[in-house]
UniProtKB/TrEMBL annotation:
Single GO MF annotation: DNA-binding transcription factor activity
Keyword Transmembrane: no
Superkingdom per UniProt: Bacteria
Gene3D superfamilies associated with the record: 3.40.190.290, Winged helix-like DNA-binding domain superfamily/Winged helix DNA-binding domain (1.10.10.10)
UniProt keywords, alphabetically: DNA-binding, Transcription, Transcription regulation
Pfam family, one: LysR_substrate
Protein name: LysR family transcriptional regulator
Organism: Rhodovulum euryhalinum
An example Gene Ontology biological process: DNA-templated transcription
């Protein structure tokens, strides 16, 4: 068995399909399938359970996955030691994040880091779900609540705040809102209830809203509805400056605080490059949240 075989195995295990892995590897899926079949034949065991849904790891595949990740880790650590811990950051870093932080914070924070480190490449995977770092979907992830299981390291980055908002035009066209009881007469924008992937995002239930007339799993879509004067919704304070015309509604009655957590795989804690990047990103996120929230007071 050689490292090239392990590289192909890891790609298929993480993508859970030949097509997805082929795109990452820039390899034809049919060729990749033959390589995986040959690897299984060499090892004398099935590594994947094939189904219409894709390629899932067998028990033997799970065991090999652990070893392959350890080997990948050792190679990465060796390369970083040769490069040394000083100097500029280089290489690729992939960050998984909910689309709120991915849209309104990470672009400017990571752009500043890349300005100071021209050899660095950053990918932001903006998806409204929890990321599986064990399968290396990303090098690190931002979450709105700390995970309870897994071989992970968790660091709280910062608190952030959310308020009920509406566009000035919407407020001018509709009846006055003097208390929470008045919300029943207004159209509400929010998450699709059965697609809320973290209980910390179930904002509207905290203020007694049961019906969401305009719903999306995307924070950006919700913000665009509010910017268009379509209704009321709860928004991150750091996103409000991106939508001129939005104003806080009942700011004393509806004021929420949440936190961002940086999640990394436990095996990455000794990687100097990722540790340095994580430190710069965390510092940048704290500063950017503070800067943007100060514009909404």
């Amino acid at each position: 068995m050689n490292w090239d075989d392990m590289r192909l195995f890891l790609a298929v295990a993480r993508a859970e399909s030949l097509t997805g892995a082929g795109k990452v590897l820039r390899l034809d899926p049919a060729t990749l399938g033959r390589r995986i079949a040959r690897l299984e034949e060499t090892l004398g065991t099935a590594l994947f359970a094939r189904s219409p849904r894709g390629y899932g790891l067998t028990e033997a595949g799970e065991r090999l996955m652990d070893r392959a990740v350890q080997a990948e880790q050792a190679l990465t650590e060796g390369a970083e030691e040769l490069r040394g811990q000083g100097g500029q950051l280089t290489g690729l870093v992939r960050i998984g994040a909910p689309d709120g932080v991915a849209n309104f914070l990470l672009p400017q924070v990571t752009a500043a880091i890349c300005d100071a480190n021209p050899g660095l490449e950053v990918q932001i995977v903006a998806l409204p779900r929890v990321f599986n770092l064990s399968r290396r979907e990303a090098d690190m992830a931002i979450a709105v609540s700390p995970p309870e299981t897994g071989r992970l390291t968790v660091q709280k980055v910062t608190d952030y705040h959310l308020h009920l908002v509406a566009h000035r035009d919407y407020i001018a066209r509709h009846k006055a809102i003097r208390g929470l009881g008045d919300l029943a007469g207004h159209r509400v924008v929010g998450y699709i209830p059965d697609m809320i992937f973290d209980r910390e995002l179930d904002y509207l239930s905290e203020i007694g809203v049961e019906r969401v007339a305009l719903a999306s799993n995307s924070v950006a879509v919700q913000l665009n509805w509010l910017r268009a004067g379509a209704g009321l919704g709860i928004v991150h304070d750091f996103a409000i400056p991106a939508a001129p015309g939005l104003v806080k509604v009942l700011p004393e009655a509806v004021s929420l605080t949440r936190g961002f957590y940086l999640i990394r795989h436990g095996d990455d804690r000794k990687l100097a490059r990722l540790a340095r990047f994580a430190g710069l990103m965390s510092e940048g996120l704290r500063a950017e949240v503070a800067r943007l929230e100060a514009q909404t007071t």
